[in-house]
Write a structure and sequence with these properties.
alpha+beta; 3-stranded antiparallel sheet; 3 helices; 3 strands
Length: 87
């Protein structure tokens, strides 16, 4: 008995990481539009339709590429807290 279902898979993810990054970037822009805010990935995961782990990986990339939003690793207590503000 095999542990796999035999279904071929063309890609490991159903969505490209670019569209996931775009979705997270739009969420961060909307949050920053209201001014400075703080969040943990686990609390916004449902809002953006991503897992906290995906958010953590993407936000590190977005921190360097988004010019209109300032993203800063703020603190760590059980999970990373991120600060997001207009640039």
């Amino acid at each position: 008995m095999s542990a796999t279902d035999g279904t071929p898979r063309s890609a490991p993810e159903s969505e490209s990481s670019t569209s996931k990054a775009d979705r997270l970037a739009e969420f961060l822009r909307a949050e920053a539009a209201d001014g400075e805010t703080y969040f943990k990935a686990k609390f916004i995961a449902d809002d953006v339709g991503l897992s906290p782990k995906e958010i953590g990986a993407l936000i590190v990339r977005l921190r360097d590429s988004m010019e209109d939003v300032e993203i800063e690793k703020w603190s760590y207590t059980g999970a990373t807290t991120w600060r997001v503000a207009p640039a």
